Amino acid sequence: MSDTETYRLAPPGFSEEQWDQFMEDGFLVIENALSDDEVDRYVEMIDRAAANDPKYDPSKHFGPNNIVERYPEFAELIDHDRHVGYMHDVYGELLKLHISQIFMRPRDGSHNMWHPDGARAVPYGVFAPEMPMQIKVSYWLTDLPEAEMGNFVCMPGSHRQQYFDHYDTHDSVPGELILKVPKGTMTLMHCNTWHRVEPNHSDVVRKNIFLAYCPSWVCEADRYKSDPNWLATLNREQRIIMRSYDGGYARTKPPASEFPLFLDRETGEASDGVGSEVALHRRKRLTTIEKREQVPA
Ligand SMILES: O=C(O)CCC(=O)C(=O)O
User: Fold this and answer.
1) Predicted pLDDT of residue 295
2) What is the pLDDT of residues 38-76, one digit of tens each?
3) What pTM was estimated for this model as a whole?
4) Which of 87, 140, 179, 225 makes an SS bond possible with 152, Cβ 3.0 to 4.6 Å?
5) Residue 102 forms part of a structural domain
6) CB under 6 Å to ligand 1: residues?
7) What percent of the chain is predicted at pLDDT more than 70?
8) Residue 277 resides in a domain
């Protein structure tokens, strides 16, 4: 860590209650996470992206990937204080952006069947039965007061199941949560959670942003590498979180220049003090969740 560089404290993340709820349900709802002005601005950005896309058809689902690079005004979301602290709590110093998307779901557009995100034949849960290997953050930008508005639907608690009887169907299942939330809501999903999408029989075009995060050594979903000219426009944390490396092994062993990604928000330190004889980039640093769950000695 050079004396001349200033590093950011990790922004706020999960409260203990939020973490418990997230791990119980595989899903967390945070209303009023965005102000009306912030919602309006993101909607304008989405509308602009659609209007400038020759492939955009207002009667069909629109869901481009890698929006942070494709539409550079979305790059601020890579490390936005509104959500990145939650991700750092879980993935710590090896945090990576897995995918970024904007979605527009108009009346009668396509809608997804039940599925989990992540690996299929050998799901993440085989190796990590509890901890999420991906977390999806969603910003909901249109009011969704009723069902059948293209709502996101999930089965709370299903992140512990590798099988789901309704896989690949649109079945409405007892116990499912049909997300009916006001605009400005942020949700976090443990990506093992089984989910589907309601049809949209309304005149409201559902608009939202999805950003999923994972450990740096899980493959990214919407790119192989980022354009170096675009990376040069980002701040340090954004550039690191994109994890655009020349060699595959750097995903597991990132270069020394990328540590610390964030300083511990409580201690202000780059390390938790254990193993200080080892160089920072080679040393384990406890995640916030690990620290919280450590049994007192
Ligand atoms: O549009 C949605 O609400 C969910 C989309 C979805 O199923 C997914 O991105 O995996």
Assistant:
1) 53
2) 999 999 999 999 999 999 999 999 999 999 999 999 999
3) 0.96
4) 179
5) yes
6) 103, 112, 117, 152, 195, 197, 210
7) 97
8) no
State how many domains the chain has. Answer: 1
**Cα-only R_g, the chain:** 19
Q: Please report whether residue 272 resides in a domain.
A: no
The whole-angstrom separation of Cα 27 and Cα 21 is 7
CA–centroid distance, 53 to ligand 1, in Å, is 21
Judged by DSSP in three states, 29 sits in: strand
The tens digit of pLDDT for each residue in 269-295 reads 999 988 889 999 999 999 999 999 885
CA of 197 to the centre of ligand 1 (A): 7
Q: In CATH, what number is assigned to the domain containing residue 98?
A: 2.60.120.620
Instruction: Specify the pairing of strand 195-197 against strand 152-154.
Output: antiparallel
Q: Determine the distance separating the centroid of ligand 1 and the alpha carbon of 37, expressed in angstroms.
A: 25
The answer to whether 61 and 103 are in contact (CB under 8 A) is: yes
With respect to residue 119, please indicate whether it lies within any of the assigned structural domains.
yes
Which is the closest atom of ligand 1 to the Cα of 138? Answer: 3
Range of the domain at 145: 16-247
